Model the fold of this input.
Amino acid sequence: MDENRINILNESNRVINKLQVYAVFFEEDIIYKIYLRLGVIHKLFENNTTLDINKLDLFHLQFTAPIIDLLKKIKKNNEGNVSLLFDEIQLNKDLIDKLNNQLLSEKTFNLEKQRQALKVNNSLRKLFQVLSDDSAEYPFSKNVNAFAARFSDDFFYEINADLFAQLVQYTPSEAYTNAYAVIHKKLMGLLCKYEFKTEFFCGLKAGSLMTEVYKFLEVDRYFLFAPAKNLFLFCDITNITGIDWTNTVSKNERIIQELNDKNDKLNASVHVMKAYMPNDIKSILNDTYKKVSEIDFLNNLSNADIQANILKTMLDTDIL
Done:
């Protein structure tokens, strides 16, 4: 076998194998059909030494090379789009990590609000004794005013100033007052009745103004504690609009769920986008397969020029 024939057959095997790689990558039947057809054509020349081997070389130049270049261009374009998806997925992961760190602060808040409720209950119990004894003793637990200052920025609900003013408004004759605190008289009575058993319900803020809302454990009643004034008043939460009290999922947890769902969808899109084949390209490849199947390569290889030129034109356009 002469050297030119060997070289052409070896090169033919190489380009056909490369097309097989693209057939596997894109998972498109039409590419696999073209690959199989090229294998048949290769065997035809390999097994028939009377055929002009240069026609096989010409065929690959006219057909196989443009197909491979076209698929290479599509693959590169798809990988660029996939890279953008991976960048978005990574940004979402970074944000999820940041929010997860904030969730640790949320756990701290949930623990501290239990401690704060205990401090407030003990302070109210002591305040009752001070008022009953007409004592000048300071009734509040240590650092009871620090809780709102520490957690209001991240965990208190924002309300407008007018609503805040309404919530802390009271009639002096309806309240007990001493040097340290102001408390609704009926609120003190209810606290005594239920043995000062309350829990932290939520925090509210209007700018730099803050108040804590507490709920009785045994009755559906609420009161507020305004740390800046050591003020304790009944609170009707139905007057506080724009807050979904039934939502037990924190804002950060909800965002994390949404980002995880989004990343799941993006990851599912990666495989599809990676092997995406435009319909007009599929149409060209189908036409190419028909031409390759119909052409008499022994006598009419020159008739393939038109289809080969279409493939080459696709490479020079911005259709991808």
